[in-house]
Amino acid sequence: MIELTAKQAADAIRSGELDAAEYFEFYRQRAAKDPYNSYVWVADETPAEIDTSKPFAGVPIAIKDLFCTEGIPSQAGSKILEDYRPPYSATSVKKLTTEAGSTLLGKTNQDEFAMGSSTENSAYGPTLNPWDTTRVPGGSSGGSAAVVAGATAPWSIGTDTGGSIRQPAALTGIVGLKPTYGAISRYGMIAFASSLDQAGTFTRDVTDTAMLLSAMVGADPCDQTSLGLPEPVRLPTADSLKGIRLGVPEELSGEGIEEGVLKAFNETLELAKQLGATVETTHLPHAPHGLAAYYLIAPAECSSNLARYDGVRFGFRKQADTLLDMYNQTREAGFGAEVKRRIMLGTYALSSGYYDAYYGRAQKVRTLIAQDFKNAFGDFDFIVTPTAPGVAFELNSKTSDPLAMYLNDFCTVPMSLAGIPAISIPNGLSEGLPVGFQIAGPAFSENRILDAALALEKAIGFDGSKAYA
Amino acid sequence: MLSSDQVLHVARLARLELTPEEVERFGGELSKVLDHIELIGQLDLEDVQPTSHVIDVENALRADVPRPSLPVEKALASAPDAADGGFRVPSPGAS
């Protein structure tokens, strides 16, 4: 059962070759014994009856902790939401379960409120990388990446604000997609930076990505920024890249990227040429400023979004004699170090006298980065880069240096600022550890990205089973 | 370098009662991050419009139809201290 992709399992369940309850129970037992601390909650039983008329019937889904799941702990990796059980479920969760027929297998570990690139900032302990348990799985959706890489779930969902799906997918040798901003409803996703947060998928292969995405997209009256996609998500079929123009931005494919990662990247560019693509160097002149703009915009929005955690309506409270002391002490005791750091940074950037110099300027840089991509897509179908500048790093190696940690997002943040879709596919190994290849396209080009990703996936021929076999 | 007075001022705005060690640590860490962020000060942004929302959405309206809201018991179920159909909090204090 373990070697089946989610699509293969779904097909076998519907044709009657595979028993839905047996398949779910197989993964439930693996999840319950997960050795990587990838789960913070696992279903304690397999449903007695599974309606096999629905497309994802019997196929378990693992969901990042920050998605609200009614009556089931949704703690966003934070102590301030310890044992919080929301009164409703996120739209994307309902679409996958109630509508598509999937059953919730577990909630996955993450950096607190999705702030981090290593899943070490969780109040529930770090998640380990299934390829090497002395290393991080990336983050912030590290639990959702580790469950797929370690085969304790056939697929999972996460969120990506500046790289939180693509970077952990790269570091664990799986496929991770961040769709166009607005493709999937954010309703019921515990907010970090609302203008950047987007739900997306973790799967073993590109075909599963298309299938999972197809069930999640759609406009939602509960999220006024949601649009869905202009056409249904298709299962990709391409086996060539004939006529496809790939642009390689010099700013994101040279300085700062580890040698082994670059080598794998360049080898795949050669494969792309053999598949019929043209590959040319291009420029995103403002992309190097993406990180600075991101680390103003995201903390500013986070400082506002996280103002709601005050010990009054839900979650953790530190009892105190006055209301103000209760607020101050609840937040001090309930938030971890990185979350406090970002709240402080964001509050500073928005404070009187600094707004124009920081937040205002960052929003203008965002305009320039979006314009850079627009210009590039005049000449190219896709922009391709390494997903992360390095392979999975050792636990605790970057926790004391926030800036070194932030540099992990160097290649993924520009696409987030521009709101465009991007996928990371496994691109072989460097030093025995997985690296990722990122393909970004214009807004709403998911179907074309999936086709290109499928053609490359076949040519690369990566075998992820080493991590769980 | 952020002074401890500046750190304490921001912490007050953010409703965080930081420990003395945190005040010192955040001063150093935030200064280092701000040094990097200030690189965008080199860009000429005079005629650039700011972007707050990247994907154009115009007039995202829904029908103005009443629908049931969350029942009170459900809304209070996760409250640290619920009383008389509401959220009980400490007194704002006389000071």
From TrEMBL, chain A:
Which residues carry out catalysis? Answer: K64, S140, S164
Chemical reaction(s) catalysed = L-glutamyl-tRNA(Gln) + L-glutamine + ATP + H2O = L-glutaminyl-tRNA(Gln) + L-glutamate + ADP + phosphate + H(+)
The EC number on file is 6.3.5.7
Specify the enzyme's EC class, one word.
Answer: ligase
What GO cellular component term, any one, is given? glutamyl-tRNA(Gln) amidotransferase complex
> What does the record list as GO biological process?
translation
Give one GO molecular function term: glutaminyl-tRNA synthase (glutamine-hydrolyzing) activity
* Pfam families for this protein: Amidase (PF01425)
Q: Which SUPFAM superfamilies match?
A: Amidase signature (AS) enzymes
Using the record, list the residue span of the signal peptide; answer none if the entry has no such feature.
none
Supply the alphabetized keyword list. Answer: ATP-binding, Ligase, Nucleotide-binding, Protein biosynthesis
Has UniProt tagged this entry with the keyword Nucleotide-binding?
yes
Which residues are in the Amidase domain? 43-450
Which family does the entry's similarity section mention?
Belongs to the amidase family. GatA subfamily.
**Protein function:** Allows the formation of correctly charged Gln-tRNA(Gln) through the transamidation of misacylated Glu-tRNA(Gln) in organisms which lack glutaminyl-tRNA synthetase. The reaction takes place in the presence of glutamine and ATP through an activated gamma-phospho-Glu-tRNA(Gln).
What does the subunit comment say?
A: Heterotrimer of A, B and C subunits.
Official protein name in the record: Glutamyl-tRNA(Gln) amidotransferase subunit A
Gene for this protein? gatA
Automatic annotation (TrEMBL), chain B:
Which reaction(s) are listed as its catalytic activity? Answer: L-glutamyl-tRNA(Gln) + L-glutamine + ATP + H2O = L-glutaminyl-tRNA(Gln) + L-glutamate + ADP + phosphate + H(+); L-aspartyl-tRNA(Asn) + L-glutamine + ATP + H2O = L-asparaginyl-tRNA(Asn) + L-glutamate + ADP + phosphate + 2 H(+)
Q: Which UniProt keywords apply?
A: ATP-binding, Ligase, Nucleotide-binding, Protein biosynthesis
State the EC number(s): 6.3.5.-
Q: Which GO MF terms are attached to this record? A: ATP binding; glutaminyl-tRNA synthase (glutamine-hydrolyzing) activity
| Pfam families assigned to the protein according to its UniProt record, in alphabetical order | GatC
Broadest EC class assigned to this enzyme: ligase
One biological process GO term for this chain? Answer: regulation of translational fidelity
Q: Which InterPro entries match?
A: Asp/Glu-ADT_sf_sub_c, GatC
At the top level, the lineage of the source is: Bacteria
How does the record describe its quaternary structure? Answer: Heterotrimer of A, B and C subunits.
Q: Which family does it belong to?
A: Belongs to the GatC family.
* Functional description taken from the UniProt entry: Allows the formation of correctly charged Asn-tRNA(Asn) or Gln-tRNA(Gln) through the transamidation of misacylated Asp-tRNA(Asn) or Glu-tRNA(Gln) in organisms which lack either or both of asparaginyl-tRNA or glutaminyl-tRNA synthetases. The reaction takes place in the presence of glutamine and ATP through an activated phospho-Asp-tRNA(Asn) or phospho-Glu-tRNA(Gln).
Question: Could you identify this protein by its name?
Answer: Aspartyl/glutamyl-tRNA(Asn/Gln) amidotransferase subunit C
Organism expressing this protein natively:
Solirubrobacter phytolaccae
Upper classification of the organism: Bacteria, Bacillati, Actinomycetota, Thermoleophilia, Solirubrobacterales
